[in-house]
Every structure is written in C-alpha cells, then in structure tokens.
User: Fold this.
Amino acid sequence: MKYSALTWVKATIDESLKQTRQALEQFVEYPSDTAPLQQCVVWLHEIHGALSVLQLQTAALLVQDIELTIKSLLVGKIENNESTYDVLMRALIQLPNYLDNLAIVQRDIPLALLPLLNDLRARRKQPALAANSLFTPDLSVAIPLRGAVSSPDDKLKKYMQQMRTAYQKGLAAIIKNPKQPQEGLKFLYTVMQRLQQATGNAPVSKVWWVTEGIVEALLQKGLALNKALLNILKQLDSLINQAAQHGNAALRAAPPKALLTNLLYFAAQARSKGSRLTAIKTTFQLDDYFPPQSTIAAARLTFSGPDIELMTVVVTLLKDDFARVEETLDIFNRADNPSVTELSPLVALLRDMANTLGLLGLTVQRQSMLAQAALILDITEGRKQPELPTLLSIANALLKISAAVDILAVQGVHAKQRLQQSPDTEFSETPQFGIVLSVVVDEAKTELAQVIQPLVNFIETGTQDDSLLEVPGRLKQVEGFLSTLSHNRAAKLLAQCNKYLEKVFIGIELYLDTLAGNPMDVEDILDVTRRRLSVLSEQ
Assistant:
C-alpha cells in the first residue's frame, strides 16, 4: 500500500528534487551565494516529511543524509570541493530513480543504497552504517492467523503460566547443551504452536508465529544458534509472563517493536526452506533486504543510470548463476537414477535471476526465466515428468537468456530495445553459439553411431538384442538436439525414422555433418530424406 501511495506525491517530490539539483548546480557556479543551498534544505526537509509519513524508511534516511550534508556544507564543517559536489549530485540523481523503482516495481532493495549513504556519512565524518541498520520491515502487515479466541482471564493466566514453564524448560535445555539443542528446540516449537492457539489473532500472536519459523530453521540447520539469537529467545519469556500476569489485557497490546524486528532479522538470515519460514519471508518480503549480490548490483545500476563497469559486474555474477544451473541440469541428466529433489534448489535461484533480469530491463527474458522456474517446480512436485524434451526446452530457453545478457554486457542499455523486440534470435549472434553447436552436433553423431551396429546385426541375423531396443530412445535424443537448435524440419523427419531406420539414417548423418561445417547442401539432403519416407509410406 505504501508503494502505491507514493505515486500520489511522487510528481511533487520529483519536481522538488529537480529544483534541488538546479540549486546545487547554481551554488557550485557561484559558491559565494549560499541562498540556493538554504532553499535546498527547505525542499529536502519537506520531502523527508512526506517519505516518513509513507513509512519509506530507507528513502527518508537518504534524504535526511543529503540534507545533513548540505547543512554541514553551509556552516563550513565540510569542504566545498569537487568530491562533495559529486556525492551530493549522485545522491540527487539516484534518489528519483530509486523512488521510480519503488512506485513501479513495488520492491525495496535497501542494500543497493548502502554505499551511497556511507559516502554521504563519510563526508561528515560519521561512522558507516552496517547492513542491518537498513533492515526496516513493515511490522504492520497482516499474517495468517486463527480467528479470535475468547478465554476467561483466570483460565488464560493459568494456561499461559503453564506455557511459560514449558518454554523455560526448553530454553534451559538449549542453554545447557548448545551444541545439541534439538530436544530443547522441539520443546520451543510446540510451545509456539500452542501459544498461537491460545492467543488467536491477538497482536502478540505475530511474535509466536515468527518465532516458530526461526525454531523451524534452527531444527533444519538453516540458521546458526549464536549468542545474539539466544538473547532474543530469552526475551520471549517476559512476553509470555506478561500474558500470565495480566491475561487478556496483555493480548491487546502491540508486541515490542525491537523484539519483533530482531526476530524478523534472524528469519531473513535463515537459509532453510521450511513451510513456516517461507511463509514469513513472503509475508514480510524479507528477501528484499538480503537478495543475491547480482540483484543488488543490478539495482545500483538501475538507480545510478548507465554504467558499463557496473553492468559488467552484474553480468559476471549472473553468468556464475547460469553456470550453477547448467551444472545441476547436466548432473541430473547424466545420472542413472536421478532424483527430482536435486532440481529443487534451482527454483529459488532462477526466481532470483529473474528479478535481476527485471532490474536490468530485460522484461521478456525475466518472464522466460520465471516460466523455467515454474516448469522445474512442476517437475520437483510431480506434476510433470522430467523427460528429455522438457529438459532440453529448459536448457534452450536458458541459453537464449544467457546470450541476451552477453549482448547487454557489450552493448549496454542500447541493446535493450532490440533484445525485447526479438528475444528468440539473439543466441545465434554470440560466440557461444558456435561452441554449443559443435558440442550438440558431436553428441548427436555419437548417438547415431550407437544406432548403426544394432541395426546391422538385426538385418544380418534377424535376431533382436537389448541394444536394438535402445535405438528409438537414441533417435529421440537426436531429435531433441535438433529441436534445441531450432532445426524443426530435421527433427520432424527424424521422428519418422523410428519406422524406417535403415533408410533414413545416412541422410540425417550427412545433415549433421553440414551443421558441423562440411560443404554440403542442407536442403537437398533433407529433400532426399523426405522423398525416401514418402516412397516408403506408400508401400
């Protein structure tokens, strides 16, 4: 809601920022006249107030730091030099781009602004901000809770006292044996579930819900149990005690802001994939605060405008992600008895990559990446079989997206429009295409070589062995290779070869030779193959 509300005031903010930039430029040209800087302070103070009302904390913090830096410049605490002007102008350029991203994409990536914030603070000789200082989740969001629960005060107090005793028992077990805390954690997990049942949709239930996710992550080894987290868990004892002492009156109070924020911070750090933790991250949009480095770099690129060096960094990080995906698919495809659970990590990875592509402006490629993530999710959850054509289609789509990223790295933002207009043709334009083509042709010819001998043996002896049974599958592999390279006509012809193997084989092998670079007419070879099939189909 707060991102949507930003659109109501954004035009006014943009105009004020434009005037602020112009005033700063005027001061740089005439440094003896401080009136423009004084007006900058007025505009920035108004903008800070509007952003604070909208609860856009990171944006408000950036405006505040710009205002404080200009004030320091006015009173002579920092030098009026090129470096001061540069950091202020960068901030005034990035801020409207950042607000555009909030209003349009409706996703905040605070860490993308951290270097800029610390540059401003460095000019004022202030200590640098840490990453957790930008962790400002929206604590007001609704969570999936049970309905209202009504219990008499005496009954509720007694039950909450029992829960406190159970909680203390589990916490004591963890403190006593922190290296093997499983038993104590299981105790806490059960207590959190029962507390939710007892408090229903009361505000404090949000604490029990988030804590349950943290304990789940601890049990699944997705989060380390350290001293800081243990101190947070200790604070929950007093919260349970309040309900035990004051009954229903305690349930009506909002949970301590600092406690809930700290709990969410640990939830954001967790790397397990449990159902409760996943729900918490989704509800509070926690992945926005600690996204992959490629996403952060892409966001900085978006906020700062075209920067070929930063573009190169983003592309390098993305290519590393592509390599991880390719390796996982390759291992799965080559395994004798592959398990679809091996593909599960790819779903989240591909979604993160899709977000990065969106920040780079590759919207078509982003949609394609999300489609591949959905396809792999269907495979891992049993809705779709991991058949070779499906895996090849995923690989083909990823190759095209990777190629688009390569082109963007070389040509920058100028390539965006062309990549969006013809997203299916770019892979053949890259050097990688020749390499992939050579590999695919070699694989296809290897499969065809394995087809020959079983056929010869069958023709000569009239007997069938196990290797002959593998022939249709091998030809299906070759058909998939050809489809991957968009040689659909050859793939369609080869599909008929399961019926007329010995007649068609030579033609298809010659066709593959032409793909590898041999000087033969591709269309003539396919025409001959088609005529042979036509004759045979009439017999």
